[in-house]
Design brief:
The chain is an all-alpha fold and 435 residues long. It has one domain. The chain is built from 15 helices and no strands. Helix 7 packs across helix 15 and helix 13 packs antiparallel against helix 15. The two termini are 20 Å apart.
């Protein structure tokens, strides 16, 4: 065990302490949720990184995800030809890949995974898995059944998780609503996870296993941070009660495939539009801030990076040190984690892949912790999506949902950082998941 492992362990409690400092009611904190939430993460992290059986299980999951991704690319290759071939790949005619294209390789897999998840819901597989995780959270952490179902379903799906608690949204407390939004932004859905795998698998062969484990770890982390930032001040309707996930089942398996595929198309359109708009606006903002910053640097004789990415890097630098990233890599990783708050995790994962390929990162610990810290929808655009989605399902609670949105974003960001701390505690440089 190195000093950085101890730093990561201390970081768990530093982040929890920061959440407590910004809490709306420190006296009402549910410490059982905090203690059990952290304990569950530590136990799961030990299973993943320390036990040979845990390593074998997640390497098996990694292989499954990679093979499924290969199947997902068949349809894209039929439509787009060599453009859909991942770097290093060849088709039946022996033609090689033309390089990495997000639009032709990663985005089409969303349609496949959306259809696959829809089929698993129709077959009753996903509701059973969600009930298992939900029951664990409810029993151990003494939280409401509805928010447990929401946190559990967010391990596998995105904003669609709101539908699993649709009958309860109108009656939820503000603390429950904050937990629902936090869980949504602290985790990632299985369909977009494919994008991150495509971005990093060349430099990080076992990234799929890490992302799956990160998504699972972030579920209890989201409850911990939410209950610290906005503690419960009343008794939830489903407190301590196991709740069945709500699901409107399709009439047939084929209809489930159609519905899932159509949902994937809408998601692709949303992601593409978001990336075009946000990256363009960030570039425009950089023109202003960098231009003004140049004059300030010259006038004061200083050297500060005034780009939005650079400024966010300064903001997240202390948090990056806290999670246990080695000092030589800390600012580079801080910029990547910080930019996620504005330009989404899709861009951040691509930037992580780039700095790994260029050799900018010097310590193998750094990209592992960054991969865990980035594994969540904790950004401004996602906050708008989740707040808007929840408000549409529970219009009578629109004001309450909007009022907790920013706190949920902060809690989700802290939850992702806590997940990175868990990985940092057990990362010894010799895990079976390093690849």
């Amino acid at each position: 065990m190195s000093l950085y492992n101890l730093v990561s362990f201390a970081g768990i409690f530093i982040l929890a302490g920061f959440a407590w400092l910004i809490s709306t009611n420190r006296r009402n904190v549910n410490y059982r949720a905090v203690i059990w939430g952290i304990s569950v993460q530590l136990l799961f992290g030990a299973f993943i990184f320390l036990l040979p059986a845990g390593g074998r299980v997640f390497l098996f999951i990694n292989d499954i995800v990679v093979k499924v991704l290969g199947s997902a690319g068949a349809g894209a290759e039929f439509l787009f030809g060599r453009l859909a071939l991942p770097p290093g790949g060849t088709n039946a005619a022996g033609e090689g890949s033309l390089g990495f294209f997000l639009a032709f390789q990663a985005l089409p897999t969303i349609i496949f995974f959306s259809a696959l998840m829809s089929m698993l819901y129709y077959a009753g597989v996903m509701p059973r898995v969600i009930r298992g995780f939900s029951s664990l959270f409810t029993r151990l952490m003494r939280v409401s059944g509805a928010e447990s179902v929401s946190a559990a379903s967010n391990i596998f799906v995105g904003v669609e998780s709101l539908l699993t608690i649709k009958p309860f949204l109108d009656k939820m407390t503000r603390s429950e609503l904050c937990t629902v939004l936090t869980a949504g932004m602290a985790t990632v859905s299985s369909n977009v996870l494919a994008i991150y795998v495509f971005s990093l698998k060349g430099e990080f062969p076992t990234i799929a296993a890490h992302l799956v484990s990160a998504s699972i770890l972030s579920a209890p982390a989201s409850i911990v941070m939410s209950k610290l930032v906005l503690p419960e001040d009343s008794v939830p309707l489903t407190m301590g009660i196991n709740v069945e996930p709500y699901y409107e089942k399709e009439a047939s398996l084929f209809e489930a495939v159609i519905v899932g595929a159509e949902g994937g198309i809408r998601l692709i359109a949303g992601i593409a539009a978001l990336l075009v708009a946000v990256l363009g606006l960030v570039a425009l903002l950089d023109l202003v801030t960098v231009g003004l910053g140049l004059y300030i640097n010259n006038f004061l004789g200083i050297n500060i990076d005034w780009s939005l990415k650079g400024l966010l890097g300064y903001l997240f630098y202390p948090f990056t040190l806290v999670i246990g990233v080695p000092i030589p890599d800390a600012y580079q990783i801080a910029k990547i984690i910080g930019e996620r708050a504005v330009v989404t995790e899709v861009v951040s994962y691509q930037d992580l892949a780039r700095v790994m390929k260029e050799g900018v990162i010097t310590d193998p610990r750094s990209p592992v912790l960054a991969a865990y810290a980035l594994c969540g929808f904790a950004h401004v655009a996602s906050m708008a999506i989740f707040v808007g989605g929840a408000a549409a399902l529970a219009p009578s609670r629109k004001r309450d949902i909007a009022s907790v949105g920013f706190r949920a974003l902060v809690a989700a960001t802290l939850a992702c950082l806590m997940t990175a701390c868990i990985a940092g505690v057990f990362f010894m440089g010799k895990s079976a998941l390093l690849g």
